[in-house]
Amino acid sequence: MKKLAIAIVLFAAAPLSAQAACAAKDFAIDGFAVKLTQGSGLPRFSMKGNLVNKCAEPAAAQIRIDAKDASGKVIASKQGWPAGTSNIEPGKSVDFDLGRLFRYSADMQDYTVVVSDVKAW
Hints:
Blueprint: H1 2-19, E1 27-37, E2 44-53, E3 60-68, E4 74-80, E5 93-97, E6 110-119
């Protein structure tokens, strides 16, 4: 009976260990750049970059972009999954542009991007 209980615990924990195989540090963001494009009305953002999986296993990552004012205070923050609900193969990358999620504000002076979550689908 004790062996059966141990086996059940191991099988139940297996999916959790698969989730923990890759972490935020296993992804890199290359070439992130913010550009403003004038059009009718307020300017539009382009916030493009490239998300690279440096983990040994397929996984997906969520990124967060923070827009900051001149003092460094975050005034807008948005998150997105560049690969959607698909895993990125090891050594592969996906392009992203989360600019459409932001509304222009003249106070926005600086932008940072980080990997905020990792998941294997």
